[in-house]
Amino acid sequence: GAVVSAFNYDFSNCPDLAQTIAATMAGLGIKGKLSGLKSLRIKETDRIEALKQEFLKFNIEIETGPDFIVMPSTAIKLPIKAIKTHQDHRMAMCIAPLAVFCNGIKIEQPEVVDKSYPTFWEQFHLSLNL
Question: What pLDDT, on the 0 to 100 scale, is given for residue 25?
Fold first, then answer.
């Protein structure tokens, strides 16, 4: 199949998907720009800033602006420190799949997912065993 080395997308109509796409890009080393993210700054936490802080723990330094994220094509590494959810269910859910690339990730406050997806961790673990 084709290999994607760069991805650019305007998420104005679906900004909540951007965190998961950013984490996928980080895991696969795909560079690109995700824009249309203004509303992510005013959610349970500033999700753009939270991603920036937590991705640094994976050796991923992203560039951010008022409504965008620029992803580098940096190789991901297992973080030494636990990943903070910033009390935001979407932060926990978007970071979790990085366990595929870095076995042993520790996520603080994993129960924050109960707000929107109480069985997330059960389903996530099942998916890893497929």
Answer: 95
